[in-house]
Amino acid sequence: MSASGGTKAIVAALAANLSIAVAKFVAAFFTGSSSMLAEGIHSVADSGNQLLLLIGGKRAARASTREHPFGYGRERYFYAFVVAVVLFTIGAAFSVYEGVHKISDPHAVESPIWAFAVLIFAIIAEGFSFRTAIKESNVLRGKQSWVSFVRRAKSPELPVILLEDLGALLGLVFALFGVTMAVVTGNGVWDGIGTLMIGLLLAVIAVVLAIETKSLLVGESASLESEELIRRALESTPEVERIIHMRTLHLGPEELLVGAKIAVAHDDTAAEVARGIDEAERRIREAVPIARVIYLEPDLDRSSSRASS
């Protein structure tokens, strides 16, 4: 996985979630809090998700084969989609179930000091992880809004980590709310409400991730900015009269396929056309380095031929 894949952010999130998961389960054991148990499961699910992202990055780096001539770049999209499914089925479903169960059969929170101590520690640890994800994302985000970055990013790891960390922080706030209200009122129903809020939050995040990664998995074109750079590179090539049509497709986050039909002068020789195609490919790669697979089909500029006649 390249640096833009956010490996640093993934490792930071994994380290934070593993330590937090242990602390949450200890607190859940001593307090009997369903919110703490749901948060522990949440952290385990997040840790598994980060491992999946690392595996996806490693598998995507494999060399192309006869069966997969364009390589395995989309493995990263597949594993990001699996993350969304895991987050929904394990994190959201369990939390919603546990919340409903606790609301229907409430129990007082025992030894609440354990819950408060762990939640404060978890908020600090998740805060550091979220800060790392933000710093890594800002390198690629540029002037985009955060919503636009999550929707348009071609590398799935950073949006996934960003939403996971944001969900983790909000989930901790919900757990803190549920435990605090249960202790203050003496009513364990509040603990269940906090757990249910965590489950619904995870469900929303999972749906958003699934929608965005599905779009990448199916196949997205290059950004408008990249396509404009490619068009300029083609049109600046002397042998290219004009672009008849062009298509782009991401084979992976850092690998772009470009296919275009270009018009050439009717009196160009085969050698001149070949030289023009080579020059056009060079200019495209210079303008957009991730354009690694380029297919250019020459055709006669029939519009200029009709105009001259």
TrEMBL record:
SUPFAM superfamilies, per the entry: Cation efflux protein cytoplasmic domain-like (SSF160240), Cation efflux protein transmembrane domain-like (SSF161111)
Topology of the protein relative to the lipid bilayer: Multi-pass membrane protein
Keyword Membrane appears in the UniProt entry: yes
Keyword annotations from UniProtKB, A to Z: Membrane, Transmembrane, Transmembrane helix, Transport
GO biological process: zinc ion transport
Cation efflux protein cytoplasmic domain ranges (all copies): 225-294
Transmembrane parts of this sequence: 9-30, 77-97, 113-134, 161-183, 189-211
PANTHER family reported for this sequence: HUEL-CATION TRANSPORTER (PTHR13414), PROTON-COUPLED ZINC ANTIPORTER SLC30A9, MITOCHONDRIAL (PTHR13414:SF9)
Protein known as: Cation diffusion facilitator family transporter
Source organism per UniProt: Nonomuraea maritima
